[in-house]
Amino acid sequence: MRTRLAKVLAVLGSVALAAGCSLPGYRFEGRFPDVSESGTGSDTVVQDAVADSASDADGAVAFDATSDVAMDGPDDADGAGGADASDVATDVPLDVLFDVPVVDVMTTCNPAVMPSMPALFVDPSAAAGGDGTAASPFRTISQAITAANAMSGSMPTIYLAPAIYAGSLRITDTTRALRITGGFSPMGAAWMRNCTLPTSAWLLGGNVEEAVRFSNNAQLVELERVAIQTRSSAPLGASQYGVFVTATGNAELQSVSVLAGLGGAGQPGAAGADGAGAVACDRVACERTMSGAGGVAGMAGASRTTPGTFTNSGFSPGNGAAGTDGQPGFAGSAGGAGTLLMPSCASCDGDVCDTTCGGVPAPSCSGRPQRACTTSARTLRGSDGQCGCGGAQGRLGQAGGGGGASVAVFVAGGGRLAIRDSSLQSSDGGAGGSGGNGGNGATGEAGTAGVSQSCNTRCTSGWSVCNCTTEAMVTANGGTTGGNGGRGGNGGRGGNGAGGSSFALVTSMSAVVSLDRVVLVSGAGGAGGTGGATAGATGASGMRLMY
After folding, report:
1. Which of 271, 539, 314, 496 lies closest to 401 in space, CA to CA?
2. What pLDDT was estimated at residue 380?
3. Contact partners, residue 152, CB within 8 Å, separation at least 6
């Protein structure tokens, strides 16, 4: 076991020394060809997604048979031509943390190599209207792909001048096999091999999730000697993929460096609206139970306690759940009934001046006409006291969104991808969004007392003027004050989102992927959203994930 481990460390150490630089703390997976093994496939060294102890962080090797990811033991470690007692017969549990260099793992560059025909050439700085020849290159890769699809004969190669190719590369409509390569520079009408740069073309993803996408290309498309980089960070909740291969994609990466930027932070949940005013209620009957009680607060939404997941469509962020609305406050208790006075009120109904004085003609009345006053009896009652209606409820807080992922290479469904002499690096996943606070419930209304009512008890006729004179008054008292309405319940807080994942390579179970001398470096999973009782989960991370 120790002999096998020494071999692995020696190979990995040679890769690190060749780079001349390192990024402490990054995780690593390397695949290296078997040597004289009777079995098939390549050996694998895999670092845990999470270090098991503090001692691992210093680069020391620690064995932990219970939780470390196992290394595939070789079938024939000693090269004797078959498995024997000296070979490692089973998987070896490892926990290795390397200071892994971010390097272009390129093959030897021969400056004498010339472009092979048929060929098309691309140079963003060339004059417009080029025909794709070495002397008159196209200005865009898409122009060259369109021209290549129209060509017959053997597989063409598209040569890219040293430049930054902004935007994204979509290989979605190729009808034939082709090769796209950097590593050459225009020298007048000729193109020469450029060995001064590890890569001579940068393909930068634009305002999209993938820098390079392969789909609907059943014929193989090779991408060589280029560096692929997404934007440095993604919008809220968005994921980033350096290379995305769908189920119908067929591609090969040769001497390619891929860097995926930071996943987008999760969308913070919006706060719920505060309750406004009181809810409608029967202010006289009011509530018969729980008079004046406050409304029950809404339930908090669940935080996402597991990382987001990958499907053939890409990464699905781990969103939290929204809270629930609070309940309205209850109306107050009923007020007292108003006083009832049975028929005892006199209404002065008449309003006509008589032109006679007891039947005697008016002139004998010395100009004093008499008012004819008629009355009618009625019942009088004060109004009942009224309760206050309960306050409106606070509305729910919205869920926090999950953070986006950072994935250097993603291969979905039955996609086919071969990677050789390349490096794949992902950045940190986006932090999960915090759930929004629930809205506050509104204060309930105050109860009111009943209104008193007054009336005449007797009316008499007046003299000299036409009116009825009120000689007595009576009052029916209003009912006692009803109870105040209860406060509305607050809305529930939204749940927190989980952090986004970070993987150098993500593949589906049905994808066909091969690796040969490939360095994989991953960032960390994004932190989960905080706030409330439960934080969101930290995003998953590691060198490779197979879903």
Report:
1. 496
2. 85
3. none
More confident residue, 435 or 414: 435
Average pLDDT, the chain: 76
Nearest in space to 37 (alpha carbons), one of 89, 2, 110, 1: 89
pLDDT over threshold 80, residue 432: yes
Q: What residue type is 191 in one-letter code?
A: W
Q: Do 428 and 406 form a contact (C-beta atoms < 8 A)?
A: yes
Residue among 321, 299, 517, 494 nearest 423 (CA): 517
Rounded distance between C-alpha atoms, residue 2 and residue 61, angstroms: 11
Q: Give the residue carrying structure tokens 């024939």.
A: 76
Q: At a CB cut-off of 8 Å and minimum separation 6, what does 2 contact?
A: none
Which tokens is 544 given?
């490779």
Please say whether the beta carbons of 383 and 431 come within 8 A.
no
295 CB neighbour count, 10 Å cutoff: 28
CB burial of residue 20 (10 Å; 0-12, 13-18, 19+): exposed
State pLDDT tens for residues 69-92.
333 333 444 444 444 444 333 333
For residue 6, give Cα distances in angstroms to 1, 32, 185. Answer: 9, 14, 42
Q: Residue 450 and residue 220: Cα distance in Å, rounded?
A: 88
Tell me the residue type at 242: G
Q: What are 32's two structure tokens?
A: 């290296």
Cα–Cα distance between 304 and 264 in angstroms, integer? 17
Cβ atoms of residues 222 and 249 within 8 Å: no
Look at residue 282 and give its three-state secondary structure.
Answer: coil
H-run or E-run covering 356 = strand 356-357
Q: Which amino acid is at 237?
A: G
User: Residue 300: phi, psi to the nearest 5?
Assistant: -70, 140
Higher pLDDT, 413 or 498: 498
What are the pLDDT digits (tens) for 177-223? 999 998 888 987 889 888 776 566 777 777 678 899 999 888 899 99
Q: pTM for the full model?
A: 0.71
Contact 163, 189 (CB under 8 A): no
* Residue predicted with more confidence, 415 or 349: 415
